[in-house]
Amino acid sequence: MKHLIFILVLLCSAICKAQLPLEHSFSARNSYPQVIVFSSNGKKILSNDTSSNQVKLYNMDYSLWKSISVPVPANYKLNSTFLITDNLFNNDNSVELIASCYYYDQAANTVTYSLRLINETGNIIQDFGNNNYASVLKDDNGIYKLIVSNYQSHPNGAAPTIDSKFYTLPGSTPCDACGNGLGVKPTNNSSNQSYISAATPNPSTGNTMIMYNLGPGLREAEIQLFNTNGQIINRYSISQPSGNINVLTSDLAPGTYFYSLRTESELTPAQKITVIR
Predict the structure, then answer these.
(1) Distance between CA atoms of 178 and 88, rounded to whole angstroms?
(2) Boundaries of domain holding 226
(3) What CATH number is attached to the domain comprising 109?
(4) How many domains, in total, are found in the chain?
(5) 1 domain residue, yes or no
(6) What is the pLDDT of residues 101-128, one digit of tens each?
(7) Is residue 61 one of the residues assigned to a domain?
(8) Does some domain include residue 151?
(9) Inside any domain, residue 55
(10) Which pLDDT band, with edges at 50, 70 and 90, does 165 fall under?
């Protein structure tokens, strides 16, 4: 009997030692933490809380580095923030970001957007008006450009209308193609990583578009759409190295959903889609 008890104690001790130690917990509504790589300020952890209009950045030891209050127009809601950088929109080493807000007219079933560039003190640097997406590219001369777009979906399956404007940027990012629309650098060589864009428009009343680019050598993948319980509710197969897919959100119940790009070797960080009626 004593021998059996001794074995059980050893087994329990081995199991307990095998558990991973918890370092820290984050709690934010409708947002997963992301790791941001800044040009001058190194790696930070992003925790977005759209319910309180706060963007919080933490050091890698989980101590708070900066808390940014996002100015939201009256009657609008903050949907997301992206292109969080420190040397892209200027060269002062402070944090700037794009904030996307929306107003939903339930009676008319229409959405009006607000896209703003703000700094870390919450001041508006530039108001881009009724647009719902922004991305960055680097041209052949090494100049970074900001693309501000307004994606307009149409009923009855008609092709969407996308109006875009290009702006020259004075700075740069730590990566040529910023993953996830957040100024995120997935690894030391972002060009070797698969990429998935923010959904546009977001929030969505009927359909939304997601752009993707697979890493070198990858030709098959899928975009997984799942609910807040982590249950996969739809899969979209990909057989081309790059392109976009259209997600029909009119079949989904109003609420928050997440999506990721899964390949044979990667799973991109989850991003959010809001469906409204």
Answers:
(1) 11
(2) 24-275
(3) 2.60.40.1930
(4) 1
(5) no
(6) 999 888 887 889 999 999 999 999 999 9
(7) yes
(8) yes
(9) yes
(10) very high
Cα separations in angstroms, 265 against 155, 186, 262, 269: 37, 14, 8, 13
Identify whether the C-beta of residue 89 lies closer than 8 Å to the C-beta of residue 171.
yes
pLDDT for 3 equals: 59
Nearest to 37 by CA among 80, 78, 87, 81: 87
Q: Examine the pLDDT at 150 and tell me if it is beyond 70.
A: yes
Residue 225 CA, chain-centre distance (Å), reads 14
In this prediction the pTM is: 0.74
Cβ atoms of residues 57 and 38 within 8 Å: no
The better pLDDT of the pair 150, 68 is held by 68
